Amino acid sequence: MKLFILKGFLLLPLILFSQTEKRALFIGNSYTYMNSLPELINQIAISKGNSLIYESHTPGGSTLMQHASNSNVQSLLNVTEWDYVILQEQSQNPSFPPSQVASQVYPYAESLCEYIREANPCTDPVFFMTWGRENGDSQNCAAYPPICTYEGMQDRLTESYTEMAQNNESLLAPIGIAWKDLREQHPEINLYSSDGSHPSIQGSYLAACVFYAVLFDDSATNNYTPTNLNINEAQLIQTFANNAVNNNETDYNRYPEALADYKIIGENLHLFNQSIHHDTIHWVGLSQNITSSEDSLIININEFTESYEITLIAANQCFESELLIQINDLKLSTPNNTPIIYPNPSSGILKTNLISIDAKTISVYNNIGLLILQDDFKPSIEWDLSHLSNGIYTILLTQKMDNKKPLLD
Question: Is 45 exposed, middle or buried (0-12, 13-18, 19+ CB in 10 A)?
C-alpha cells in the first residue's frame, strides 16, 4: 500500500486589513458619560483608521434594575443593529455581598442581555467592569467590611462583573483590572477626580483604551492622546489597558474560530475540523474542486500529490471565521498504522477512521489514571463521551492477541 507524508503544512488565519466601523450603545451612568468616554473611544478608533458610531443612555446614578424597566432603553435597542451594547451598573452595587448582588444585580443583567438579543441576536453585550473607590466605600463599610478598602471593593467588583459576563455569555471590558494594576505600579498617575469616585481624564482614557481593544479586537497602543495628557502618561495607560485585555481569560464571546488538524490514513489525507463557537463548517479548495461540509474532509492523495490550498470556513448565525490551509510537497512514505481518534480537543463525540487495526477494547482514563469507561472497539463509529465532565483524558486501544503476541503496542 502506498502512503504519503506532508513536507509542509501551514494553518493560516485569513486576515483582512481595512477600516472597521462598529456601532455601540452605552447603557450606564456618570462613570460612562464623565469625560465623554464614548467619544474618547471613537477618537482612539479614528486614530487607528476605524470609527465608532454610538448612542448613550447614562442618567446619573442609574442601576441595571432601572435600565431594565426603562422604555428609552427598549427604544434605543431597536434604533439600529448594534454590534455591542455596553452595560454598566451603579458603582457600588456589584461590590455588595454576593447574596445581595445575586438578587439585586444579576437578574437585571440577565434581563438586559435577553432584551439585547431579542432586538438583534448578533449583538454582543459587554459588561463594563468598573473600579473601586479611591479609599473604599465609607458609606457601606460598617455593613460589609470587605469593601472598607479600595482593594476589597475592587476584588468584589471584579468577581461580580466576571460572573455577569460568564452567566450571560457576554464580553467583559476589564477596566477595573487595568485600573488596579496601573494604580499599584504607577501611583503618580491619578485616575480619580476630586471626589475619589469618578474618573479623571487619565481614568477615562484608561477605560477608553480598554474598550477600544475589546470592541475592535485591536491593540490599544500607539493611538490618539487627549490634549490634556502628556505622551508618557498616555503610553503607560495604553500599555496597561492592552495588558489587561490580553491577559483576561474571561472571554465568553460567541465568535467562531476556524481551527483544524490533519493526519495521513492509508492513501487519504484527513483534515479534521476543530473549530469552536460554530454552527456550520465548509471546506473549499478551488484548485482541486474540493467542497464539503463534513467534520472530516477526506482527500485521496493518490489522485494528486503536489500541493493543496484549502479554506475552512466556520460560521454561526452571526459571524464567520476562515482558516487558510496550505499543504505542500506530498511525498511517498512507508505505511503507518498509528491509530487515529479525532477530533482532539473534542466536545465529547469521538470518531475513528482506522478500520484496518484489529483492536479489542477502547478504554478511557481520567487525568489521575483511573479507568472510568471501557467498551468494545468498533471502528468507523462515533463514541459519545459528552456525559463526562470537562478535562483531559487518555484513550487506550487494546489489541487482540495472536499466539499471545500483540499485533501493535
Answer: buried
